[in-house]
């Protein structure tokens, strides 16, 4: 775990194949568009440290990396996720129609408390649009999701999507609605907050089970 971060959040990027999940992750991590869309070299994992509301948060982001084609995204992939980007392609109604299934998986396999932002990707392809902003924002409202239209190509709203989700999780921690110490919360304390806080018994063990990413 990063020596400088206050928290670590596990994020997922979910949605139908072709919606632009890998490109969104790549744009967020590398701040550029992934030109080579070779699926076999797809990014499966990325992390970036961000500053949100005065806190340093390491986002550890998991991409389905092609598994969605076979509907074999496993339970272990979802486990312990604090946030998710639920992605569809605004030029493909098919990807939009699949949202309910993805949402059900996220809430049952990750956590009912998972913070989800709906991303209508490929905003740059407005001429080919099959799903209106209004229709998707109604869906978001009905399902208690945040909503943004994004473009992994131009980068529009890509950072915003990740940061908005992180900010919402932090707010829920501060209001007590989310408990970072609950198993499977998808939230862990970073070393810098461990140094500052007088930790209650039990939290140290939880921070030990980290990977080195
Ligand atoms: N125009 C445009 N194309 C995109 C955008 N995001 C992804 N793509 C393209 O859509 C295709 C699928 O992207 P990819 O990230 O592999 O989708 P995934 O299967 O959801 O991971 C690729 O050809 C990308 O170049 C976007 O925002 N705008
Ligand atoms: Mg992909």
Automatic annotation (TrEMBL):
<keyword id="KW-0813">Transport</keyword>
<dbReference type="GO" id="GO:0005886">
    <property type="term" value="C:plasma membrane"/>
</dbReference>
<keyword id="KW-0653">Protein transport</keyword>
<feature type="signal peptide">
    <location>
        <begin position="1"/>
        <end position="19"/>
    </location>
</feature>
<dbReference type="GO" id="GO:0015031">
    <property type="term" value="P:protein transport"/>
</dbReference>
<keyword id="KW-0449">Lipoprotein</keyword>
<dbReference type="GO" id="GO:0046872">
    <property type="term" value="F:metal ion binding"/>
</dbReference>
<keyword id="KW-0488">Methylation</keyword>
<keyword id="KW-0460">Magnesium</keyword>
<keyword id="KW-0479">Metal-binding</keyword>
<dbReference type="InterPro" id="IPR005225">
    <property type="entry name" value="Small_GTP-bd"/>
</dbReference>
<comment type="function">
    <text>The small GTPases Rab are key regulators of intracellular membrane trafficking, from the formation of transport vesicles to their fusion with membranes. Rabs cycle between an inactive GDP-bound form and an active GTP-bound form that is able to recruit to membranes different sets of downstream effectors directly responsible for vesicle formation, movement, tethering and fusion.</text>
</comment>
<keyword id="KW-0472">Membrane</keyword>
<dbReference type="InterPro" id="IPR041819">
    <property type="entry name" value="Rab4"/>
</dbReference>
<keyword id="KW-0636">Prenylation</keyword>
<dbReference type="InterPro" id="IPR027417">
    <property type="entry name" value="P-loop_NTPase"/>
</dbReference>
<dbReference type="GO" id="GO:0005525">
    <property type="term" value="F:GTP binding"/>
</dbReference>
<keyword id="KW-0967">Endosome</keyword>
<keyword id="KW-0378">Hydrolase</keyword>
<dbReference type="GO" id="GO:0032482">
    <property type="term" value="P:Rab protein signal transduction"/>
</dbReference>
<dbReference type="GO" id="GO:0003925">
    <property type="term" value="F:G protein activity"/>
</dbReference>
<dbReference type="InterPro" id="IPR001806">
    <property type="entry name" value="Small_GTPase"/>
</dbReference>
<keyword id="KW-0732">Signal</keyword>
<keyword id="KW-0342">GTP-binding</keyword>
<dbReference type="InterPro" id="IPR050209">
    <property type="entry name" value="Rab_GTPases_membrane_traffic"/>
</dbReference>
<protein>
    <recommendedName>
        <fullName>Ras-related protein Rab-4</fullName>
    </recommendedName>
</protein>
<keyword id="KW-0547">Nucleotide-binding</keyword>
<dbReference type="Pfam" id="PF00071">
    <property type="entry name" value="Ras"/>
</dbReference>
<dbReference type="GO" id="GO:0031901">
    <property type="term" value="C:early endosome membrane"/>
</dbReference>
<comment type="similarity">
    <text>Belongs to the small GTPase superfamily. Rab family.</text>
</comment>
